[in-house]
Design brief:
This protein is an alpha/beta fold and about 375 residues long. The chain has 2 domains: about 240 residues, Type I PLP-dependent aspartate aminotransferase-like (Major domain) (Aspartate Aminotransferase, domain 2), CATH 3.40.640; about 120 residues, Aspartate Aminotransferase, domain 1. It has 13 helices and 14 strands. It has an 8-stranded mixed sheet, with helices on both faces. Bound molecules: pyridoxal-5'-phosphate. Pyridoxal-5'-phosphate binds next to helix 3.
């Protein structure tokens, strides 16, 4: 008997011209963290996002780090961040000595609550400690409520880092995510909607800031005939081989978004009637790439928990996960300040949330099996 292969949450999906671009890199011997694919990938990403400049990097985390450097985050500076996110959204700022203040989710978007943000900004104003940055995260592909969040920050002159690591290909008001903050961040990690195996992009309309970040991403070398440094930098540039993979993947982005949206639509159709189940909303004025199909299960109504479903799927060699554990519940941030929406929404989402296998290469048969097993866990 042959064993069925494991079904992953969000596996890579190659399929276009990746090998052709890799071959081109080999044929021209551009085997370095610079080269024609890197330049072209930056241009193509900037164009797709509708911003003036982009910088290709080794990871999304590296992009957040360079954004923080650009905003001059110093020890003791506060910054605000959605609590419900992956730690990479803010780890670089915390490592620079920045002090996080966490903001709860809005149930309509699962993203940063404008009500909680406004309260946090008011308190900051009253205490005379303006945050160095607000990090907005577009969770699981769903854009934030930009129409309400951005004016709150703009009015007070607080710069926004838009963590669009999970929302490549998503739109808000018809505009690409990654283009809304002072800086936008994409990730091309292996589990994201398009991938370079590992990689990221820093985006901005401010060409000067991107030029400075580019300088810092290659060890901050002064213009001199020898190696001279007036400040400290990083080694964060993307390989030309991987940029080739990224170019081929970007050509497929529309298709990948359509596939992930189909996967989500089929789950909702097939599971939406189950007691206590609600799918992640798609807020008005936005179009999510549906990177991961996510839902909540109210155990009081259903008698089943998210962890029961995860166990049932795991028994059949299928990967699924709870939603991100909020940052205000993390041991490493035990002392951090937290602003709630009303109840503790991000905690509720964590305690009831579930991410189902969502790959753009998930077959109809595989998805049917997942659906059957999830329904089975409710009996
Ligand atoms: C993946 C991810 C990142 C970091 O991207 P890497 O390329 O893995 O460093 C940042 N923020 C969020 C929300 C992510 O999901």
């Amino acid at each position: 008997m042959t064993e069925r292969k494991r079904i992953y949450l969000s596996p890579p999906h190659m399929g276009g011209r990746e090998m052709e671009y890799i071959q081109e890199a080999f044929d021209t011997n551009w085997i370095a963290p610079l080269g024609p694919h890197v330049d072209a990938f930056e241009r193509e990403c900037a164009e797709a996002a509708g911003v003036r400049a982009a910088l290709a990097l080794t990871s999304g985390t590296a992009a957040i780090c360079l954004a923080a450097r650009s905003l001059d985050v110093m020890p003791g500076d506060t910054f605000f961040c959605s609590s419900l996110t992956f730690i990479a959204s803010l780890a670089p700022l915390a490592q620079m000595g920045g002090v996080p203040v966490f903001i709860d989710s809005d149930p309509d978007t699962w993203n940063m609550s404008p009500l909680a943000l406004e309260r946090a900004l008011r308190d900051a104003e009253a205490s005379g400690r303006k945050p160095k940055a607000v990090i907005l995260v577009n969770l699981y592909g769903q854009p934030c409520d930009m129409g309400r969040l951005l004016p709150l920050c703009q009015r007070r002159g607080v710069p926004v880092i838009e963590d669009a690591a999970e929302s490549v290909g998503s739109l808000y008001g018809g505009r690409a995510t990654g283009s809304f903050g002072k800086f936008g961040v994409y990730s091309f990690n292996g589990n994201k909607i398009i991938t370079t195996s590992g990689g990221g992009m820093l985006l901005s309309d401010d060409e000067e800031s991107i030029a400075k970040a580019r300088f810092r991403s290659t060890q901050a070398r002064d213009e001199a005939p020898w190696y001279q440094h007036s400040e400290l930098g990083y080694n964060f540039r993307m390989s030309n081989i991987l940029a080739g993979v990224g170019r081929a993947q970007l050509e497929l982005l529309d298709d990948r978004v359509a596939k992930r949206r189909d996967v989500f639509a089929r789950y909702r159709e097939a599971l939406g009637d189950l007691p206590g189940v609600s799918f992640m909303p798609e807020a008005p004025n936005s179009r999510s790439n549906r990177w991961l199909s996510t839902l909540t299960i109210d155990p009081g109504v259903s008698g089943t928990t998210n962890l029961d479903v995860i166990d049932a799927l795991a028994a059949e060699n299928i990967e699924s996960r709870p939603v991100w554990k909020p940052m205000h519940m993390q041991p490493v941030f035990a002392d951090a300040k937290y602003y709630r929406h009303d109840g503790d929404e991000s905690r509720r989402l964590f305690e009831t949330g579930l991410c189902l296998p969502s790959g753009s290469n998930l077959s109809q048969e595989e998805q049917s099996l997942v659906i059957r097993l999830v329904r089975g866990a409710f009996r």
